[in-house]
Amino acid sequence: MRLSIAEALRSAIAEEMRRDPAVFCLGEDIGVPGGWGGAFTVTLGLEKEFQDRMIDTPISENGFFGVATGAAILGMRPIVDVQYGDFLLCAMDQIHSNASMLRYMSGGAVKVPMVMRAPVGATGRGAQHARNTERFFVGAPGIKVVAPSTAYDAKGLLKAAVRDDNPVMIFEHKLLYGSKGARAETGTVDATSEIPDEDYVVPLGTAAIRRQGTQVTILAWLLMAHFSLTAAQQLETEGIDAEVVDVRSLSPFDYDTIGESVRKTGRVVIVEEGPKTGGIAAELAAGIMERFGDSLLAPIERVASPDIPAPFAPVLENAYRPSPQRICEAARRLL
Amino acid sequence: MNQERLYISLERLTPYSKEFLLGLYERMALIREFEEQVKYLFLAGSMPGTIHQCQGQEATAVGVCSALAPQDYITSTHRPHGHALAKGLTPLEILTELFGKGTGCCKGKGGSMHIGNMEKGMPPAIAIVAGGIPIATGMALANKMQKRQEVVACFFGDGATSEGAFHEGVNMGAIWNLPVIYVCENNFYGASTHVSKVTRKESVIDRASGYGIPGHTIEGNDVLAVYEATRQAAEECRKGRGPVLLELLTYRMTGHSRRDPCLYQPKEEREAWGRRDPIEVLGRGLVLRDDIQESDLERIRNKVNQEIMDAIEDARQEPEPTLADLTTDVYA
Ligand SMILES: Cc1ncc(C[n+]2csc(CCOP(=O)(O)OP(=O)(O)O)c2C)c(N)n1
Ligand SMILES: [Mg+2]
Q1: Going by C-beta distance under 8 Å and a sequence separation of 6 or more, which residues neighbour residue B215?
Q2: What share of chain B is helix, strand, coil (3-state, %, to 5)?
Q3: Which of A16, A28, A47, A129 is an active site residue?
Q4: Distance CA B303, CA A31 (A)
Q5: Looking at the predicted complex, does its ipTM rise above 0.90?
C-alpha cells in the first residue's frame, strides 16, 4: 500500500501498540476526538482503538518528557510527541539531564526505552517554529537519533525505536509528512512509499544509498535528502556522477556505509538545513576526516543555512533553506 | 447554557462619554474586520505557514489595552493580531508583516506569530506557549529598577498556565512586587484540548492565592468589565502593589490555527458563546443610550471595513525584503 510519512508513522504506532501493551503515546492534542491527531495528523483516530493509551497532556513539555522517562524506567515504552521540534528545548532538561544519562549514572542498572517524535524544518511560520533541532541531540551520549526521509523508513525506524531499550529521538520533516485535509502543508515534497503488509524494521544506526555514483558523495537527511536527489539529477545532465547517501541515522552515524562511498568518490558534500556553525555537518565532516581523510581528493564542502534564525518572509526563507541549486554549485566546486 | 443575549446595561455605560464608548466599539470592530479579511487572504494562499486568530476575543485585547497608557507595555502570544491592534499598531504595519514584506513591523523577519513594535510598547509576540510570562516579569523588573511608572500587561492563554514558565514567571513577579498584570485569556481550550482535561480546577484564578497576589475573574466578552478591572490593576501596580492576575473568560469563535474546523467545540457551546459575541455585547448596550443609534454603529463598521480594505491594498504594494536583509539584525 502506498502511504505518506504521516500514515506510515500512524500504522507503525498502531501495530506496536497492538503488539506490546507497554507501548503508549503521550503528548499535546494527540487523541482529542474531533481534533487533529497531533499537529500533523500522525496519531489521527488512534484514540478510538487505544482509548487508555493515547494520553493528552497539558502544555507542559518538560513535565511530560519527565513523566515519559519515569514511566520508561518502570517498564512502559512511551512514544512522546512534541508539536514542533522547537518545543524540545522546553523539555531539554528532562531529555538531556535525565533520559539520556540515567543509564550511565546508574552504572547500567536503569534503562529508558522511550521514543521521542519531533517535526522540524522552516515552513513559513517564523523563527520559533522552524528550527532543525537535530543538532542539539547528536552530542547527547545515551540518546539515539534518526531522521527518516521516506514513508518506508519512517515506519521501519519508528518500530525499531519502540523496540530499542534506549531513548530514541525521531526527527520528522513538516514538508515530508504528506498530511491531508485541513492540516495539509503547502510546499510538501512527495515522500510516500510502498509499505509491505508484513512486519518489518529499519535498523537504527544505518544509512541508505539513494543513488549510486562515482565522482562525489552527497550526504543529507530529511528534506535535504530529497533536494540532493534533485541536485544529482541535474548534475547528471552536466556529466557529474553523484552518489546520494541518506544519512538517516544521526547518532550514531553509519560510518561503514558513509566510508565506503567516500572511499569510492573521494569527494564529499554535506547538506544540512539549519545554521552552518555548530551543525551536524561539522561533526560529520570531522568524523570523515578522521576516518577517511587519506582518500579525500578535495576538502569537504558544507551546504547549510546562514548563521541566522529562520526568517518568515518567503523570499528570505527560501534563501535560508539550502536549495538543489546550491548543492549543485558545491559539487561543481569539487570537480 | 445561558440562552440570554448578554449586553452591558445602560447604568454601567452612563458614566462614560460617547466618544470613549464608540472608541471601544470601533477598535473591536477593527480587529474583527482585520481578522475576517486576513482569514480570506490566508485561505486564498496569500500568506505562508499558519495563522492564529482572535475572533470572539476582541474585548479582552481592547479592554486591557485601552486601560493602559501608550507608554505602558504588553507581551503577546502566538495569537497576537488583536493585542497588537488594540495597543495601537496599524493594520498596515501588521498586514505588511503577514504578507512577508520588507517594510512590515518586523521587516518580514517575524511573521504572524511575532508581531510587535517596541515604540508602541509591544516587543515581538512570543509563540512559545508561556514564554512571554517571565519576559513580562523581567520588563516589569526593569521598570521598577529604573523607577519608571510604566506597567506591563502580559497576555497568555489558559493553556499556558500548565507550563513551568507560568509558575516561575508569576512567582518572581509576586515576590518582587512587580508592576505587571498577568492577563489570562481563558477561552477554555488550549489548541483542541479542553481546559477540564488539563487541570482539575477549571478556574485559573485560584492560582493567584497560591502566589499570594490578588486575582479576579472577569466576564471577558464585556469590554467595559475588562477595561475597569485592568484600570484598577494598573493603578495597584503603579502604587507598588503589583502584580495582579486577571482571568478573562472568553471564547475563540474561529479555528485554533490554519484551516481548523473546530470539531472539538460542541455546537451548543459555540452557539451559547455566539450570543455573547463581545462586539454585540457592547453594541446592544450602546443603542440603549439616547446619544447613540444603530446607524452610528453601522457607520463605524463600514469605516473599519474601508480602512482594512485600503490597508490590504497598500500592503500588497510594499516591497519584498531583499537578500541583503537576510543576515542583518542577528546581533546588535
Ligand atoms: C511550548 C509550546 N508548546 C506547544 C505549542 C503549540 N501550541 C501553540 S498554541 C497552543 C495552545 C495554547 O493554548 P492557550 O495558551 O490556551 O492559548 P490559545 O491558543 O487558546 O489562545 C499550543 C499547544 C507552543 N506554541 N509552544
Ligand atoms: Mg486557550
Answers
A1: B205, B206, B207, B208, B209, B244, B245, B246, B247
A2: 50, 10, 40
A3: A129
A4: 44
A5: yes
A293: which DSSP letter? G
Question: What Å distances lie between residue A38 and A25, A188, A254, B101, B230, CA to CA?
Answer: 11, 18, 31, 31, 36
**Tens digits of residue pLDDT in B235-244:** 999 999 999 9
Convert the pLDDT of each residue in A43-88 to its tens digit.
Answer: 999 999 999 999 999 999 999 999 999 999 999 999 999 999 999 9
Q: Among this protein's residues, is A61 annotated catalytic?
A: yes
Q: What is the pTM of this model?
A: 0.97
Give residue limits of the domains in chain A. Answer: 2-194, 208-334
Up-side HSE of residue B91: CA atoms within 13 Å toward CB?
25
Name the class of domain A208-334.
Answer: alpha beta
Q: Which residue of A has its CA nearest to B114?
A: A126
Contact yes or no for A53/A16 (Cβ under 8 A): no
Beta bridge partners of B234: none
* Domains parsed from chain B with CATH numbers: 10-314 (3.40.50.970)
Q: What do you get for the CA distance between the two ends of chain A, in Å?
A: 41
Q: Whose CA is nearest to atom 9 of ligand 1?
A: B191
Q: Identical fold at A2-194 and A208-334?
A: yes
Parallel, antiparallel or unpaired: strands B193-194 and B189-190 = antiparallel
- Structural element, H or E, at residue B137: helix B132-145
Quick check: helix, strand or coil at residue A20? coil
DSSP B186: E
Pocket-testing residue among B129, B198, B250, B260, ligand 1, by greatest number of atoms within 8 A of Cβ: B129
Q: What is the DSSP letter of A60?
A: -
| Domain spanning A2-194, CATH architecture | 3-Layer(aba) Sandwich (3.40)
Q: Is the CB of B204 under 6 A from ligand 1?
A: no
The three cell numbers of residue B184 are 489570562
- Cα distance between residue A13 and residue A9, in whole Å: 6
First to last CA, chain B: 53
Per DSSP, the three-state class of A171 is strand
| Beta carbons within 8 Å of B34's beta carbon, 6+ residues apart | B81, B85, B91, B94, B308
**Residue B162 with chain A: CB contacts under 8 Å:** 58-60, 63
Q: How far apart are CA A55 and CA A27, in angstroms?
A: 7
